[in-house]
């Protein structure tokens, strides 16, 4: 094996899919790209990594709500574009042709063009690690959308695209919590 600089070790543990996180601060809806996400157990509890360097963070901290929108591979240029400009001086919904949809539980909008959306409440902010812990309130999935492959950021400007599914449900059935 070849040595890898320790500061690049995070690229080996690629997290969940790249997501778009929407917020609303009563004056303006905004969306940011988040590449570090985490599922917390077998429930609708999640965590994202962000902090005050992101314009959306103030709205997230003040309103304690957001929507996690899950884009697909055909949206890669939009995903990168959203992540490389600031909502402070850009209406990202307009610039990237995104359609905001009203949610049932939070003011932050769902994104129509995404494969799925999860309305969330902030339940904890762990400043030391820039982790926002979220409880999901409602989830939506667009099963009519043709493209369903998601993107995963490696952390060095490259991405991995989901591939084919391999079904081992029967083999794992006795090992999974009930209801899954």
TrEMBL record:
Domain of life assignment: Bacteria
Domain Flavin reductase like: 12-153
Keyword Coiled coil: no
GO MF assignments: FMN binding; oxidoreductase activity, acting on the CH-NH group of donors, NAD or NADP as acceptor
A Pfam family that the UniProt record links to this protein: Flavin_Reduct
Cofactors demanded by this protein: FMN
Gene3D superfamilies in UniProt: Electron Transport, Fmn-binding Protein, Chain A (2.30.110.10)
Swiss-Prot/TrEMBL keywords: Flavoprotein
InterPro entries named among the record's database cross-references: Flavin_Rdtase-like_dom, Flavoredoxin, Split_barrel_FMN-bd
Keyword Glycosyltransferase found: no
Database matches in PANTHER family: FLAVOREDOXIN (PTHR43567:SF1), FLAVOREDOXIN-RELATED-RELATED (PTHR43567)
Family listed: Belongs to the flavoredoxin family.
Name of the molecule in the record: Flavin reductase domain protein, FMN-binding
Species of the source: Beijerinckia indica subsp. indica (strain ATCC 9039 / DSM 1715 / NCIMB 8712)
